[in-house]
Structures are given as structure tokens and as C-alpha cells.
């Protein structure tokens, strides 16, 4: 059965400054929902507030019509990839996959480049390798929804391609919300697309709207 996640009336303020006054997004299992926006427009804050990692002045988050105050408090519901690295440096890659109950061998078959990394410590892998590892840890959580903040950062084109394939594969089991500045990656993979601008989210129906809102040049 398709599951639905709807967040609306999201209002986020830091001190006196309103960052988002009317945030709305809808995601569902089987689909990838892309979120675009210029630097500082509030994409990370929006995802964090929906997940429950930061407080919002106001928000309404519903899953299948039921109000859920914090996604993060409901077991098996959602997982979130923060923009910044989150796995401690001293952990070995294999240990982290074990802790996350993720089958590293199955992933290594899909991504052979992970093989030589499994015995390395997190602070010994490259920036792109670390990003990929942390993205996979979150993407493969046994949850209904994943929220991914800039999973393509630091990734080489071939790693981006592989991650595209894994996202397409995982969306058959999950609803995925994705934000990144590699906008072509987002537009090519998303089933629905939102833009954050002027403190609001807008559902984008046509790529031209990205130009009209000043996200892209003509
Ligand atoms: N904890 C905080 N305290 C005060 N201001 C904050 C805090 N977190 C974020 N901001 C501000 O809120 C605004 C939105 O930040 P956010 O990181 O959500 O934007 P973003 O769209 O994800 O940006 P980018 O694409 O550059 O990562 C920025 O102006 C930022 O400086």
C-alpha cells in the first residue's frame, strides 16, 4: 500500500529572522521528491524541521493522514541524511555497516568500489567515499521515508550514476525526499519537484518555472 508523507504550514525562524513562512511538501512511497533552492533558502532547515531534528515555530506533518509530531520518534518511519558528516572518525567502515544492520557484502556487489574501504577508518576514506558511505547507511535503513540532504556532494560522475541506480531501486520500497545543488541529478531522477524560494515551497510543473523563480539563468 502506498504511504504518504505530507508536511505543510512549516514555519522556521532563527532569532528574529523568518527563514520559512509557508513550507509544504508531499512525498509517497514509490516516488522520489526533489527539493531545489538557492544557497541559504532553508532547504536543510526545512528537512531538519520535518524530521524533528530542529524545532519549527509551526508545522503540520502527517503520515497517511495521521498527525506525527516528530518523524524521528516513530520507529521504522523515517531516516535522515544530514548535510554534514555524522559518523565518528574512529569507526571502521565495516563496523558502521554492522551497527546499521546493513549488509555491506550485498552493497559491495552493487558498488565494487566499496570493497577496499571496509577495513578503513572513517577518517581514512576520501570526502566522496565518506559521503557515499553515509548516504548508503541512511538510504538502506528499513524505514518508509528517507530525507537526504546533499547526497551527491563530493561524488565523482560515476559514483553519482551508481547512486542514481540505487535511489531508483530503493524507491520501490520507500518514499525519498532529496535535495542537492547538482540540480540536473535532481530533476532527472525526481517524480515530483519543489523549489524553495521567498520563504515558501512551490510545486514545479515545468522546468521553465526554475528560471522564472530565479533559480536558473535563462
Ligand atoms: N541554527 C541556526 N541559527 C541561525 N541561523 C541559522 C541556523 N541554521 C540555519 N540558519 C540560517 O538559515 C538560513 C537557511 O539555512 P539552510 O542551511 O537551511 O539553507 P540551505 O538552503 O540548506 O543552504 P545551502 O544550500 O547553502 O546548504 C541561512 O541563512 C542560515 O544562515
Distance between the termini: 41 Å
Mean pLDDT: 94
> What's the overall geometry?
globular
> Into which percent range does the helicity of residues fall?
25-40%
- CATH architect. name: 3-Layer(aba) Sandwich
Order of helices and strands: EEEHEEEHHHEHEHEEH
What does this protein structure show overall?
Helices cover 28% and strands 28% of the residues. The protein is of the alpha/beta class and 218 residues long. The chain has one domain (4-213): Rossmann fold, CATH 3.40.50. The strands form 2 sheets. The chain has a 6-stranded mixed β-sheet, sandwiched between helices. A 4-stranded antiparallel β-sheet has the order 2-1-4-5, covered by helices on one side. It is globular, with a radius of gyration of 17 Å. The structure holds adenosine-5'-triphosphate. Adenosine-5'-triphosphate binds next to helix 1. One of its GO terms (molecular function) is ATP binding.
Task: Provide the descriptors you would attach to this structure in a database record.
218 residues, alpha/beta, Rossmann fold, six-stranded mixed sheet, four-stranded antiparallel sheet, 10 strands, 28% strand, binds adenosine-5'-triphosphate
SSE blueprint and pairings:
Blueprint (H helix, E strand, L loop, with lengths): L3 E11 L2 E12 L3 E6 L5 H9 L6 E6 L2 E2 L10 E4 L11 H7 L4 H7 L16 H13 L5 E5 L7 H14 L4 E5 L3 H7 L2 E6 L2 E5 L3 H5 L6
Amino acid at each position: 500500500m502506498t504511504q504518504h508523507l505530507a508536511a505543510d504550514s512549516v514555519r522556521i525562524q532563527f532569532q528574529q529572522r523568518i527563514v520559512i513562512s509557508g513550507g509544504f511538501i508531499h512525498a509517497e512511497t514509490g516516488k522520489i521528491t526533489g527539493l531545489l533552492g538557492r544557497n541559504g533558502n532553508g532547504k536543510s532547515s526545512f528537512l531538519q524541521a520535518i524530521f524533528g531534528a530542529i524545532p519549527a515555530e509551526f508545522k503540520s506533518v502527517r503520515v497517511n493522514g495521521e498527525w506525527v509530531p516528530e518523524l524521528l520518534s516513530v520507529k521504522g518511519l523515517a531516516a535522515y541524511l544530514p548535510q554534514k558528516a555524522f559518523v565518528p572518525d574512529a569507526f571502521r567502515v565495516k563496523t558502521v555497516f554492522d551497527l546499521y544492520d546493513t549488509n555491506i557484502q550485498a552493497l559491495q556487489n552493487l558498488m565494487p568500489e566499496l570493497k577496499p574501504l571496509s577495513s578503513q577508518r572513517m577518517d581514512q576514506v576520501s570526502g566522496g567515499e565518506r559521503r557515499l558511505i553515509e548516504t548508503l547507511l541512511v538510504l538502506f535503513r528499513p524505514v518508509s521515508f528517507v530525507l537526504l540532504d546533499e547526497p551527491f556532494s563530493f561524488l565523482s560522475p560515476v559514483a553519482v550514476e551508481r547512486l542514481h541506480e540505487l535511489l531508483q531501486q530503493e524507491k520501490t520500497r520507500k518514499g525519498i525526499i532529496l535535495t542537492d545543488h547538482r540540480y540536473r541529478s535532481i530533476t532527472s531522477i525526481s517524480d515530483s519537484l519543489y523549489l524553495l524560494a521567498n520563504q515558501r515551497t512551490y510545486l514545479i510543473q515545468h522546468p521553465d518555472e526554475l528560471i522564472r523563480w530565479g533559480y536558473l539563468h535563462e
